[in-house]
Predict the structure.
Amino acid sequence: MSSKALSFVGWRRAAALLLGGACAMGTALAQPRAEPVASGLAHPWAVAFIDGGRYLVTERGGRMRVVEADGKVGPAIAGVPRVEVGGQGGLLDLVLDSAFASNRTVYFCFSEPGDGGNSTALAKARLAADRSRLEDVKVIFSQQPKVSSRMHFGCRIVEARDGTLFLVLGDRYSRMQDAQRLDSHIGKVVRLTKDGAAAAGNPFAGRSGALPEIWSYGHRNAQGAVLAPDGKLWLHEHGPQGGDEINLPEPGRNYGWPVITYGENYGGGKIGEGITARQGMEQPLHHWVPSIAPSGMAFLGSDRYGAAWRGNLFLGSLKFSYLARLEVADGKVLREHRMLEGVGRVRDVRQGPDGLLYLLTDSPDGKLLRVTP
């Protein structure tokens, strides 16, 4: 081959490399970005979408606030019950009743003070028409026993298709062994009516020594929960140091904590027997080592980011400050992708009425972000 021909081949290879680089850059630029909606939120924890394009947001310090459609943050809403704020405790999750448009009912959970310390409590209330206060506030469920602890409240709420409520409850850190006991709400998922009673059909109803509200047990500290498109409950929970998990809680099943775990003690060293499996205990659907400290959880039900992302699962990383996109099929996680790296400690992830994803970042100057295509 002549030197001129060799030169031409080299030019073609260089052009191909340049074109490939340009395509890769184009793909990167085409990824969604985080667009600020509001700032100045003090450790926001949960967001819900109310009338007129507004947002209802909880702040861990005990305030509930309305963010206007233009991003203006309103004053604290009156009527929030007394909240014990400290450590991981405070005013935490928030969801709207499925019939909110007609009944204006909201459910929220928080760290409730009382004899013996504090525990996770679930309340319901009606948001006033002018959005200035909560009316007819009732605490409908309190985790028992109360514990002197500032850790592991859990506190995510999901309304099931049958109108019952799932509430995830942490192990309170110092009481992790109680996650295996059925006479305690510690380390459990409970299933309740909208008045806070044990829902019909719960697996331990009528069993001596077991609390009737319990749905599943052996959980550590769930920070995200959501219904999948098929109506099943999914949740993720923090491991101790490694071993963050995604689980699909089924009635009466034992998810193993602290007997089995893919994590280890803080600073190193095995937990208990240091095993990852035992007969009669469920394996996680997916787990992370090292921990990413997941928080918030949403299945995307729209095509706003392209049809390929519909049905993907999204969750935030508190530890590494990114949004994770998980491709799932047939109840399995196939692939995981990191997005919006450096966006901040993602505390909540929700899909809005417009089909877009919204994030809350957990900081003294927390933000409400819209993920735009």
Observations:
- The first strand starts at residue 33 and ends at 41.
- Residues 1-29 have pLDDT under 50 and may be disordered.
